Amino acid sequence: MKTNLLADKFAIEFDDLDLATLETAALDEVRELWMRYKVAVFRNQQLTDEALVGFTKRLGPQHVHVRDQYHDEKHPEIMFVSNLQEDGRNLGSLGNGDLRWHTDQSYTAKPVHGTMLYGVEIPEDGGATWFCDLGSAYADMPAELRALVNGETASFSGLKPDSTQSAPLRPDQIAKIPPQRHPLVRTHPYLKYKTLYISPNHIMQIGDLDLARTEKILDQLVDWAEQPRYTYCHKWRVNDLVLWDNAAVMHRRDGFPSRQRRFLKRTGFHFPEDLGIPY
Fold first, then answer.
1. Beta-strand relationship, 10-14 and 3-7
2. Is 58 helix (H, G, I), strand (E, B) or coil?
3. What are the residues whose beta carbons fall under 8 Å from the beta carbon of 142, sequence distance 6 or more?
4. In a structure prediction context, what are the per-residue pLDDT tens digits for the chain, which is 279 residues long?
5. Cβ neighbours of residue 21 under 8 Å, at least 6 residues apart?
6. Collapsing DSSP states into helix, strand and coil, what is residue 32?
7. What is the DSSP letter of 61?
8. Minimal CA–CA distance to 49: which of 123, 104, 116, 122?
9. pTM for this prediction
10. How far is it, in rounded angstroms, from Cα 65 to Cα 79?
11. Distances from the Cα of 265 to the Cα of 52, 119, 137, 190, angstroms
């Protein structure tokens, strides 16, 4: 198995694997290396929708995103992330603008463990995805910052007013995602290390603070966490599949020209039921 580290102790690249035919022993090794390095990049994949869903299911209980207007019609486990339009409607979510740092489904009671993006069409300019190693950022965090997060909780919402989501939610979708309170420092359910757990795109309130004070603290935490030693910038190639661990990683996206096409397929999977709630 040929691998290459893409950042300092963070993000690992595999360039000789076919995820559609991966044997069990190889899958176990991939899973171990992915969780150790938090982000895994698989080059040169040729995945049908059935193969993408099948690989996702081998890693954990399948996630189905609340924004069902962007689901694949045959495979609701697949969500389209795209700026393209079809029959006068947006084919996928998120458009072509910048996306603020966030952690997927942190606004749910049992956030998704792993997220995958599979690159089908990639713009020539921009559209890179940045990943941040929140485990290492917390391990190195100075005492004055740790004092702001240790033992503290935050309210996470999918309806944050300044969220960089591009489309409103329907009333029935809103009803499925009431705000959730999670710790700002969580324990990785499998590896047992402590990690910062923040999603600036979704956190509405830290402790009992108002939004302005909450944003000030988030700015301090992001300033620390997004240092180059804790980040990896993924510049997409067609047929890349990227997998990341939402228990210890936040991510964001650079914008790209609206005239250029970007189309990715997104899947995700959960922790087992008894490990799903952050602690």
1. antiparallel
2. helix
3. 224
4. 899 999 989 999 998 999 999 999 999 999 999 999 999 999 999 999 999 999 999 999 999 999 999 999 999 999 999 999 887 788 888 788 889 999 999 999 999 999 999 999 999 999 999 999 999 999 999 999 999 999 999 999 999 976 655 567 899 999 999 999 999 999 999 999 999 999 999 999 999 999 999 999 999 999 999 999 999 999 999 999 999 999 999 999 999 999 999 999 999 999 999 999 999
5. none
6. helix
7. S
8. 116
9. 0.96
10. 7
11. 9, 7, 29, 27
Write the single-letter amino acid at 174.
Answer: I
Residue entry with tokens 């176990």: 28
What type of residue sits at position 143?
A: A
Residue written as token pair 């040169």: 44
Q: Which two tokens stand for residue 183?
A: 């710790």
Angle at 247 between CA 245 and CA 252, to 5 degrees: 65
CB 46 within 8 A of CB 239: yes
> What single-letter amino acid sits at 32?
E
